Amino acid sequence: MANGSQTGQIGLRGWVYAGRFGLERYAYTLHRITGLGLLLYFLMHICVTSSRALGQAAWESVMGFLSHPIFRIGEFLVYVAFAYHALNGVRLILGELGLGLGNPVRPEYPYPIAHRRQRPLFLALMIISGILILAGGWDFFVTKH
Amino acid sequence: MCQRNEHSGQALSDEIVREVVFRVQRYSPGQDRPVTREYRVPVTRGMTVLDGLHYIRDNLDATLSYRFSCRMGVCGSCGMYINSFPRLACQTQILELNSDLVDVRPMPNYPVVKDLVPDLSQLFAKHREVQPFIIRNEQELEHPTAEFLQKPEELLRYLQFTYCIKCGLCLTACPTVATDPRYLGPQALAQSYRYCADTRDAGAEGRLRIAAGRDGVWRCHLAGACSEACPKGVDPALGIQLLKRLAVLRALSLKKPHSPAPVAGKRTGVERRPGIPQPPPPTVESR
Ligand code: SF4
Ligand code: FES
């Protein structure tokens, strides 16, 4: 078919851009990327901690390998993903329970869009997640442990 | 020829107020990849993108294919991707695009039949899949004797979703549809809610099994693009969230199925007001 697959799907490109849409569409993309990142982290986490079952020596060599600064940055990225994913997730769950979206109305022009009513909540949650990320960054990289 | 536009008071005339370039994606079956062609189109006030395509077909290139019927945002045939946004060609004023370039492509997320004509069969199949009709186990549906009773506030719970014209623009906007061809999508799911929320219906359980199943509502993460693209104010994203809520409440047994709205009984004790003519006799035999 003319635009890619049999079904015409735009594919991953569609996550990033499909026109001039509101903030929520980009929040969606970030939510999926951070979600996949966290999943990957959990899998790695299980592999790493299970090395303890192979004995003390294996555990210590893995830990030694992971003390490289690059993993510190990786850990911080996991924290950033968590801070965003959790707070955006709060908005999604509230929306899924129909909270903050309002009720259906007569579609009279200019058409109302329910999720825009949730914008203030979205922005507030993003500010909180920004503060969490900054505080986390301070703790990761500035405070001496 | 000169009329007055009753809303803006501006003169609608044949006067050419701008010349724009239509950059149109062209594709014919058998071709490897689509190509773009450019056409210069003189624009008069009130001219829509669909009018522009008519101009091209009538004056510049008779082989251009596009789909339309009503020319007034009712039939849902003319959905296209115009200047990077999914829109109905017949409802998009060229002058309001405020650009010398009008970029017209077929709707993304659908296979292309030819030029600007997408294959919408997936959309209709998904619509059919969610059981978009009143379900109740009664003779009354097959052989109606009277209307079902419904209060105006009950109507308002689903009215907004009835305005869907099945143009499919929302599936073009949706990022989940972009990577998951099986996802039922905003159009079908909003229709699923429309019938679940209808007090005349008693089929929510079966309908929810489909809509809250593997390819249903839980694939939506509220990107909201469908609602922004919808040309009829249907707000499918709202419909999907309300459907999720319904699915959760039902699963937790926090919401019992309602008994479907009753059939209006025979009126007793009311007199016909004088002077009101009788209705014509029924055209079908009542049973
Ligand atoms: S919900 Fe809106 S955009 Fe989607 S098919 Fe219906 S009218 Fe078109
Ligand atoms: S031609 Fe019918 S909706 Fe545009």
Keywords:
heterodimer; A: 145 residues; mainly alpha; 3 helical TM bundles of succinate and fumarate reductases; 5 helices; B: 287 residues; alpha+beta; Fumarate Reductase Iron-sulfur Protein, Chain B, domain 2; 2 domains; two-stranded antiparallel ribbon; 9 strands; 16% strand; binds FE2/S2 (inorganic) cluster
Would you write up a description of this structure?
The complex is a heterodimer of chains A (about 140) and B (about 290). Chain A is mainly alpha-helical. Chain A has a single domain, classed as Fumarate reductase/succinate dehydrogenase, transmembrane subunit (3 helical TM bundles of succinate and fumarate reductases). Helix content of chain A is about 65%, strand content about 0%. In chain A, helix 2 (about 25-50) crosses helix 4 (about 70-95). The radius of gyration of chain A is 21 Å and the shape is elongated. The model of chain A is unreliable at about 1-5 (pLDDT under 50). Chain B has about 290 residues and is an alpha+beta fold. The radius of gyration of chain B is 23 Å and the shape is globular. The mean pLDDT of chain B is about 90. The chains are: A mainly alpha (about 140), B alpha+beta (about 290). Chains A and B meet through helix 1, helix 2 and helix 4 of A and helix 5, helix 7, helix 10 and helix 11 of B. Iron/sulfur cluster (SF4) binds near residues 164, 168, 230 and 236 of chain B.
